[in-house]
Request: fold
Amino acid sequence: MDLNSPLFDRIRVKPEHREEPREDRVRCNFPACEETGEFRAPMGRLREGQYFCFCLDHVRQYNASYNYFNGMTDDAIARFQRDDLVGHRPTWSMGVNRAGRSFREDPADPKSFSDPLGLFRARSHRARPEAKQPRYGLAASRALATLGLDDSADSATIKSRYKELVKRLHPDANGGDRSSEDKLREIIRAYNHLKSVKIA
Ligand SMILES: [Zn+2]
Reply:
């Protein structure tokens, strides 16, 4: 029997059923992402040996932003992070996003990270004042961010944003195009979470 036969390749690429959610798996560290975090991504040059776990899509996005530091000297990165700590904008040009910050948003939470290039922020997402005490927990805040909202949004705003996004992303509204389906799933998950905690 020839195991290298193209026939076997064809058998192997047979579409698989979606995996059952397992509780022991590592969840992707991207806010509100339910995929398995099977890809490790280094946290940064000054955090050697520390990793985020992301799904394939999010590790790609993260790597794209992580590469931002390529070519920077350690000095420049140290300055970048120090400036970030004291809340100052770096004095030198940051390129795309002037409000660039270190990847870790909350030093107490190893899984939090900020988004220097705005790559995770495809939706219009207003910057929140840093010192403000968050109104909701992390999960709810992330769900709100997924809908492009912050914690000032009331139930009516959340509902209307949700309807608008579902309408916009639904395959039926895009001539059957299913490319926005993952996004739509993420939106629905976020909204269901907000409903379950009585915010929406
Ligand atoms: Zn993910």
Notes: The radius of gyration is 20 Å. The helical segments are 6-12, 56-66, 74-85, 138-146, 155-169, 181-196. The CA atoms of residues 56 and 137 lie 26 Å apart. Residues 135-200 form a domain with the Helix Hairpins fold (CATH 1.10.287.110).
